[in-house]
Each structure stands twice: as C-alpha cells, then as structure tokens.
Amino acid sequence: MKKHITVIGAGIVGIATASYLRRDGHRVTVIDRLPPGQYCSFGNAGILSPGSCVPQALPGVLSKVPGYLMDPLGPLSIRPAHFLKAMPWFLRLLEASRLSRVEKIADALRPLLKQTFEAYAPLVSNANVSDLIRQTGYVVAYSTLEGYQADALAWKLRQDRGVLIQTLHSKEIQDKLPQLKGQFEIGLYLPEQGFVANPERLTQSLAQQFQADGGEILQREVLDIECNDSGPHSLLTDQGRWPVDQLVICAGSHSHIWAKKLGDVLPLEAERGYHVTYSDPHCSLPMPLFLPEQKVFVTPMEMGLRIAGQSEFAGNDAPPNYARADVLRQQMQNIFPGISAVDSTQWMGRRPSMPDSLPVIGPASKMAKVWYAFGHGHVGLCGGAPTGRLLADLIAGRKPNIDVRPFSPSRFS
Ligand SMILES: Cc1cc2nc3c(=O)[nH]c(=O)nc-3n(C[C@H](O)[C@H](O)[C@H](O)COP(=O)(O)OP(=O)(O)OC[C@H]3O[C@@H](n4cnc5c(N)ncnc54)[C@H](O)[C@@H]3O)c2cc1C
Predict the structure, then answer these.
(1) What's the average pLDDT block by block, 10 residues per block, for the chain (413 residues)?
(2) In a mutational test of the pocket of ligand 1, which residue from 378, 387, 391 has the highest number of ligand atoms less than 8 Å from its CB?
(3) pTM surpassing 0.90?
(4) Cα–ligand 1 centroid distance for 381 (angstroms)
(5) Which domain CATH number covers 333?
(6) Beta strands in 339-391 (DSSP E)
(7) Pick from 197, 366, 347: which is nearest to 273 by CA?
(8) Sign of the CA dihedral with 391 first, then 98, 308, and 220 last
(9) Which of 32, 103, 148, 349 shows the smallest number of beta carbons within 10 Å?
(10) Domain span including residue 224
(11) From the CA of 87, how far away is ligand 1's center (Å)?
C-alpha cells in the first residue's frame, strides 16, 4: 500500500532513504532546515568501504586514550566542558570493545556495508552521476612495522569476513602511489574499496533527481513532533504545522533528540571531525590513502586533495576549533613535504556516532508509524544507500536481505 512518508533530514542517509521510498511509489517529503547535503554529508573523506566492519573501539582502547589525548597531533580531543556529559557514552563504548561484542558488531556491519556500490548504482545511474563513484581500491600505509602489528586484530576481523587485503612492502606502496616519498615501511591494498569524488555533489544530485521523480523537499526547521496514542500526527516547524502519517528520522547527530521524544532513549554523540581541502596542491593521487597511525584519509576529490580525520567530543553546538584542522595541515606536510596550502579550505562536521559503532535502522520501539535511520558514525556515506534500501524494504513489508536485529533501537533498553 502506498503511504505518505515524511523524512526529517536531507543528508546522504535521508536522501538515499527518500529516493528508495520514492522508487516504491510512496508520496515522500523530506524536511531539512538546510539545503540537501550541507551538514555532515558535505565534507567527509568520501570513502566507500564495504570492508569497514571494524568498530571504533577494540579491546585495549582504554590504554590508548591518554596517549591520544596528550599528543598535540593526536586524533582525539574532548572539550573539558563536555567531558561529564559524554561520560555515559564512553562507558558504553568501553563495554562494546569486548572481543565477543566486537566480533558480533563486525558480523552485523559487514553485510550492510558490503552492499554499498551495488546499492548506490541505481541511484547514481538514475541521477546521471555514476562518474562520482570510483572503485579504485585504497592504500593503507604504516610508518613502522610495530604500528601495523598493533592493528593485527582489526585486519583479522576484516579478513575473517571476506575483505580482500594485499600486503605491500615499502617499494610496492610507492609503486601504487608514486607521489609518496618512501616514508612508509609497510602497507596494505584493499582492492574492493573506493570513494566518492565529491560527497556534497552526490547528495545534491540524488536530491535533485528525487524531486524530478516526484519527491518533495521542504526547507524548514523541525521544532517539535506532536503525537497522540496512535503515533505522531504533525511536525511543528518554523513555518507552521506539517501533518505526518509515516515518519522517518534521519537527522544525523540530532536524531537522538527526536528518538527521545518518540520514546527511545538512545546514546548518540556528535563526534566532530575536520577536513582540509587543497584546491591546487600540485600533486594528486590515483586512489585514497589511509594512515591508521594518524587516523586520517587523504582522498583525491574533484575539488582537489582532501585530508580528513579527527574525533572531537564537544557536543553539537560548540563552535569549531580549527586548531584541529591545523593538525591535519601539519600531517599533510609530513606526507607531502612542501605541499601548497595557499588555496586550502577547512571544515568541521558532526558524525552521528553510536557507542557500539552500529547505526539505528528500523521501527521505533514504542511508537507506531515511526522509523529510524541514523547513527552511522564514521561510515554514513558508505552506509547511506544500503540503509535507504533496507528501510524501504522494511516499510514495504518485504523481507530484508540482511539480519536487521543488531540495528534495533531496543538494543539499548
Ligand atoms: C571528517 C569526516 C570524515 C568522514 N569520512 C567518511 C567517509 O570517508 N566515509 C563514510 O562513509 N563516512 C564518513 N564520515 C561520516 C559521514 O559523513 C556521516 O556518517 C554521514 O554524513 C551522516 O549522514 P546523515 O545523513 O546521517 O547526517 P547529516 O548529513 O548530518 O544530515 C542530517 C540532516 O538533518 C538535518 N536536521 C537535523 N535536525 C534538524 C531539525 N530539527 N530540523 C530540520 N532538519 C534537521 C540537518 O540539517 C542535516 O542536513 C565522515 C565524517 C566526518 C566528520
């Protein structure tokens, strides 16, 4: 039966979900206070990584945190004012870092992310932007053998789940990426991975096609959700009331606010990250480069060369601290000595992160006619289209092609 479905959020997850719902013939309205793709989906590293099934926290994570926090070039920062507020989330992260839990998380993530290229294919083809998706593989490079050995569990988790991984010695890293200067001792090549050459243009193009196909996008801020016994009946927005029948929450790092209103108390943090994009770097790469020791990706975008990374916990509303982007600039200098930063731009975005690294996908646990698709953390670009297709299957009553139970909101109750 065709329904009227309202989606809150025009990031990549909301737009991919709306696109799949529209393909099923529903009447679909997306509401966002910003134009499509202007929040976290604007400036990510662009990586499409069907093999990214390893959660953020692995056994031993606690022992690494002090080192990360004390290193001025380190990947992690927590604003003192936000420390106590984020503590329950960190305790849950710690709990999710047990090996038995990590194995289960990887078992759940792999089937979802494995579908990324296949799930984007019909959307980008319909929008005539297949050129944005590049399945080049990517290179992982370690400056020391010890660094590589310290990550043994993460690579084993991927390999155990069928991710193709080739080991590269120093010379072979340079064969793949001649732009590097031999500063890496050991590396890996993951041939099935790839990237989006412009994440902003991807979301915008899919949004335009969604509208051309009869979908509706309204630029409004949602201020409240009004409910009665049978579920939500309207959204209170800055431009008046919007009546709703079925409601999908894809509001990124703000989604937990609406989930709470709808009866699900969920731990979600805005895990802020930064990028610096060099529009005229005088060098490019044939494929992305990942440096696990610094936790940064360098991606050859159509706008130039982008370095992205950092995990900053400061809440949704604190202003950006562009000293974190300067850390990325310094790392870029270390990788490509003398790179020109003259035309570089910087950006901060909020990853919607759950402490167990699993998104929330499926029906609300307490309220009828409400669906969730949020919390993808570091893999929201990769997970956007697979999530949209999955949610469309669930709403249509079709049997989903993967086990959705690990993504249930009730896992935290
Ligand atoms: C530095 C960095 C690098 C990253 N690299 C990668 C990567 O390489 N690969 C990958 O897969 N992922 C990556 N990510 C993660 C990825 O970008 C996110 O997971 C993804 O963009 C989340 O998409 P979303 O649609 O859930 O959220 P968003 O893009 O944040 O969209 C949510 C939308 O909801 C809207 N909204 C919220 N509240 C309201 C309201 N009250 N009223 C109206 N609208 C509202 C917002 O305006 C926003 O447009 C990276 C993130 C960062 C920060």
Answers:
(1) 95 98 98 98 98 95 85 86 94 96 98 98 98 98 96 97 97 94 93 98 98 98 95 96 97 98 97 96 92 96 96 96 95 91 93 98 96 98 98 97 97 91
(2) 378
(3) yes
(4) 8
(5) 3.50.50.60
(6) 344-353, 360-363, 370-374
(7) 347
(8) positive
(9) 103
(10) 4-412
(11) 23
